[in-house]
Amino acid sequence: MATETLTLGKALNIGLRKALENDPKVVIMGEDVGKLGGVFRITDGLQKDFGDQRVIDTPLAESGIVGTAVGLAIRGYRPICEIQFDGFVYPAYDQIVSQVAKMHYRSGGRLSIPMVIRIPFGGGIGAVEHHSESPEAYFAHTAGLKVVSCSNPQDAYVMIQQAIASDDPIVFLEPKRRYWEKGQVDLDAPLAEAYPLHAARVARPGTDATLLAYGPMVRTCLDAATAAAEDGRDLEVIDLRTLSPLDLGVVYESVRRTGRAVVVHEAPSNVGLGAEIAARITEECFYSLESPVLRVTGFDTPYPAARVEEEYLPDLDRVLDAVDRTFGW
To answer: What is the model's pTM?
Structure first.
C-alpha cells in the first residue's frame, strides 16, 4: 500500500495526473495552468509531461474557458476548467447556468457534459478583493449542476478523480486555505472501491451535539471538538462533502442521537447552505431536537479587507459559543 503524507494541493496534483494518464480525452484548461503550474501550483509539472494540447493556458476570459469546455464535452472530451480564484467565476456564470447545467436536459438526455469546474474558494489567505469568496450557494441552487468540496488530502486525491470520471458537470470547490495542510493519502486504493463522491461522512464521532461543515470549515470544527472535549463535551463532526445533491441520511442519524446541530460555513448566512440544511433537519428530526438548529457563518457583507478577515471568518470561539447556546435551551 503506497500511503504517503501529502499536502491537499499535492494530492490534487497527483489525482489530476492520474486522470490524465488514464484517459486521453481528459484535458485541463485555465489561466496560467500550464507553464506556471497554476497560481497555487496545483497543475505544476502537468503541461511539461502531457503537452500544451492537454494542459492548455487560456486567455484571461472565464466565459471563454467554460464555453470552450462545453463544446469539448459535447464532442466526448472530459475538460477540467480551473477558475483561478472564486471571485473570478462570475464572468462564466452565464455559461455555467445557461449551458453547462441545462445541456443534458435541453437535449432530452442525448448529450452529456462530463466536465469539472475547479474553484479555489474561501478566505483565510490574506488576499485582496474578489479572491476570498464563497459562491457555493449559487451553484447548489442551480438544477443540473453537482457541487462537491473536499476538506483533506485523501478526499482531494480521490474526489477529483471521481469528479472527472463522472458524466455529470461538477463544480469542484477546493478550500484554498487548506492547500498546504498535510495528511495521509493511499495512492493505491482502487477508485471503484473508494468512498462515494456524493456522500457525507462522519469525520469525528460524538454524542453530545453535531457539527456540520464542508471544505475549509471541517478543520475548524474538528479543532472546536478537540477543545470542547477538554470541557467534557463530546461533539460529532460531519463532513458534508457534497453540497448538491445533499446527503443528509448520516446527518439525520447523528442529530437524532445528539439532539443538537450547528451548521458552519464561511459564506454569508442569508440564503446560504446552512439555511437549507437547518430546514431539512427541522423537518426530519423535529421531535429529536433539544434546541433549534444554529448557524455559524460569515456575515452578510462583502468579504472584508485582509487585515480584518479574521473577524469575518467563523473560528473556534464562534463555533464553541454556538454549541454553548444549543445547551442553553
So the answer is: 0.97
